[in-house]
Amino acid sequence: MSTHPVNLSDHESLARAALDAATWAYVQGGAADGLTLQANQAAWQQLPLYPRVLRPLAGGHTRLTLLGRELAHPLIVAPMAHQRALHPQGEAATALAAAAQGAGFVLSTQSNVPMENIAQLVQQDAGRGPLWFQLYWQPSRDTTLSLIHRAEAAGFDALVLSVDAPVAGVRDAERRHGFKLPAGVSAVHLPPTTAPAEWAPGQSRLFDQLLLSAPDWDDIAWLREQTRLPLLLKGITHPEDARQAMALGANGVVLSNHGGRTLDTVPATAQLLPAVARAVAGRVPLIVDGGIRRGTDVLKALALGASAVMVGRPVLHGLAHNGALGVAQVLRQLRDELEVAMALCGCRTLGDASPALLTNA
Ligand SMILES: Cc1cc2nc3c(=O)[nH]c(=O)nc-3n(C[C@H](O)[C@H](O)[C@H](O)COP(=O)(O)O)c2cc1C
What we know:
By secondary structure, this protein is α/β, with parallel strands linked by helices. It has one domain (8-52, 65-180, 210-356): Aldolase class I (TIM Barrel, Alpha-Beta Barrel), CATH 3.20.20.70. Helix content is 41%, strand content 11%. It has helices at residues 8-18, 21-28, 35-46, 90-100, 115-123, 141-154, 172-177, 205-208, 217-226, 239-247, 269-280, 295-303, 313-345, and strands spanning 64-66, 69-71, 75-77, 104-107, 131-135, 158-162, 231-236, 252-255, 286-289, 308-311. The chain is globular, with a radius of gyration of 20 Å. Bound molecules: flavin mononucleotide (FMN). Flavin mononucleotide binds at residues 26-27, 40, 78-81, 108, 110, 134, 162, 234, 256, 258-259, 261, 289-292, 311-313, 316.
C-alpha cells in the first residue's frame, strides 16, 4: 500500500490501517447486507462515458453558482457524525480543510465540535465554500428551534434537514464490533443520551416511543416558516417527495440514500437521479451523494442533472489517516480528476455536462 495516496481508494486503504475494527465498521458499514452501499459505487462505475473530441477547452473552469454563492467547484463535504472518533480535531480539521479547498462543508447535528467553533474557523477563509448545518429533527419543536437559532447566530449559510433517518438503520457491522464513542467524545449539540425507557411487552419501542416525535410534512411546512435561511431536504429518493419538498418551499433537494446506511436495497443514487432531476426540473439546486469516488463520477452526476455532489466516506478516510491534510488531499484529488474528466470529455464548463455524455445514440 502506498503511503503517498494518489486517489481516493489509496486514502481508504490508509484509513483502514489507521483505525481499529470497530471504528472502521462505523465509518465504512452499510445497513443490513450492504447492498445499497455496494450499489452506489458500482452504479457510477457502470455508467459509460461517450467523450467528444476537438471541442474548444481554453478558458474552461469548474465554477458554479449555488444558492446565490459562487463556488470554485461542485464538491461539498457531506454531514457526518462523530468525527472526533477518527481524529482528535474531528470536524474542526475537516471544516478547515474543506474551506482551504473551496469546498462546501455540512456540519452534522451529531458533531463532536460545537457549531460556533466551526463557524469561527471557517469564516476567516475568504475562499471558503458554503457552510451548512445539518439538522436532525429533535423530540420537540422547541429543541429543534434552539438548534436553528444557534446555527443562524453562528452564521451558517443554510440548513440541511435530513429526512431519511427517523431511526438508525440496521447496522449489523457496527453492532457486531460493538462500536462505542471513545471517552470524552460526544454529540455536543444534544443532551446526553439516556437509557431507553422500559416498554411493556407487546409494545414496540419504535412505534410506541421513538417515532412518536418523528417529523412529517406538516413539520416541514412549519420549519420553513421558522427561519430565513435556505432549507434543503436531504435523503429524498422519490420524485414525488422532491415535488412535495419544493411545494412546501424547500430551497434545495439532496438526493441521498444516506450512503447505504439506513434502508438496505434502496437503488443506487445514480439510478434514482434521472427521475428526481426530471421532477426538480432545475427549479432548485439538486445535490446527489453516495459512492462518489472519482472525478468521472462527479461528471456523470452533473450530466444526469445534479447541480453539485456531496462526498462522504472518502473525506473521513483522509481525516483518519492524516487529519486536515488528508481531507485536503482527498478534495483536491477529486477536483483534479473532475477537471481531467471534463477536458477529456470535451466539457469546458460544468454546463457542458449533459445527458449526451452518457449515450452515443
Ligand atoms: C460515518 C458516517 C456518518 C454519517 N452521519 C450522518 C449524519 O450525521 N447526518 C446525515 O445527514 N448523514 C450522515 N451520513 C451520511 C452522509 O451524509 C452521506 O449521505 C453519505 O456518506 C454519502 O455516501 P458516501 O459515504 O458513499 O459518499 C453519515 C455517513 C457516514 C459514512
